[in-house]
Amino acid sequence: MTTTREPIRSAEDLRGRRTVVLGLARSGIAASRFLADAGAVVVAYDRRPLAELGDAAEALAGHPVRLAVGIDETEARAVLDHAELLVTSPSVSPRFPTTDPWLRDALRAAEDRGVEIVSEVELFLRLTPARIIGITGTKGKTTTSSLLAAVLERAGLPSVLGGNIGTPLIERATELSPETWAVVELSELQLPTVGRGADIALYTNIGEDHLDRHGTVEAYRAVKARLAELSIDRGTVVLNHDDQGCRDLAERLPADRVRWYGLERPGHGPDEAWVDDGWITVAGERLMPISDVPLPGRHMLRNVLCAAVGGRLAGASTDAIADAIAGFRGVAHRLELVVERGGVRWVNDSQATIPAAAIAALEAFDAPIVLISGGAGKGLPYDAFADEVAARAKAAVLIGETADELSRLIGDRIPVERASDMAAAVAAAARRVLPGDVVLLAPAAASFDMFTDYAARGDAFRDAVNRLGEER
Q: What's the CATH architecture for 11-120?
């Protein structure tokens, strides 16, 4: 059966189109509402039964969306077979080995029939007239995106923030004006389906991650490069000169379309940001002393430099950029100071889900560290991380599936303790701290062995720390 129809180019193209939305998390709920209101015939599929979907059904109330939830594989295939448009959750792809085999086969069959498969963020990018600032990278995306949004707000520039940061933008697609900046965080899950580039594309870094989905570092980096490749003809690409992955990407891009930032002056052209004699400097103009930056660590400073270049390219004044940076207090689960109690800082970096990010977290503190680490591995090596732990931490409390490997690699260089859950890990760390110490949650692993996601892990750490304070 052939179901080929013209690609979606406007909201009017959605009218009457048989559409299946795959997944009823936040982006799926938002997409379902938008599509139904635009006149599409919408079925929302989720393998979870209604009782496990929380407030999803209530969130769709008042919108003509038919639910196909908790159904078996045969019924689900039948739903997909009648679709003229498929809108997928970012984690669902016919090319991801992490997608259920039957669903991969069904999606490939849909492609063969000519069915268009898009993500919520791709639908937004197609339909909105807003100017786009796309932000991607292995780590630092959310902090940079949030800071840049604060810069634009401080500068009085109309803007919205969304994408992978957790806020779907599709329901605002047609209401935004061409003068609005849409700051869109883009992950490696979303980039494969994106067909529109950005007016300004910002990269925090390009390392290695999610090899369970992409198979090789080269394949992962090819996905990350997609934003630059789509943006370079119409926009500007901003790269981290301190990062080898960004420098490698730049070799394939026209130099006049690239802007740089780094801790030292890149020296490649205009609108650069760097640190000069203790000052953040943008395009040769001193912005503010780095001592006024409230975020700890060199990697956070690079995020600040990236946002400063993005803000300048978007039209923000120097004063607005400096004021926004000085007033920015970070994002939850990213070197988040939970509390300072008895001279001990308790820091939540649950979003450090790969070894490189956890190393950066260790490097952020010039103080004795009691580290809480471990979780579900991603197929990445831990040797370098274990060496940094041994060099920078006074003790380590290990949890999760990677605890055995980390314990073996750290050896007897520092005291190592095992904990069965987060509450026990926090209690173990508390027994080892002295005034002036930092207790740092930096897992260097995914969360899915013990928690629904990294945010739930960070929340568990925060709750355990707060309960510890109540008990004392």
A: 3-Layer(aba) Sandwich (3.40)
